[in-house]
Amino acid sequence: MPSSCKDIRQELVDCMLKSECVKKGNSVKECFKEEHANEVPSECESIRRSFYECRRGMLDFRKRFRGNAPE
What we know:
This is Cytochrome c oxidase assembly factor 5. This protein is mainly α. Helix content is about 65%, strand content about 0%.
């Protein structure tokens, strides 16, 4: 995993560990399900989308040679 994705992943983990859903004893995976959507801060959702785009960019052949640099 490129270092850029590692940084975003760690940011997502840190954000989720501070969320109410995880503090109640749920796992991070459970917190991203629809029934817990109101307990996850919007900041964590935006970080999750960024992480998804970073991982997706790893599979995109056009970006493979250029890296995950912003367009």
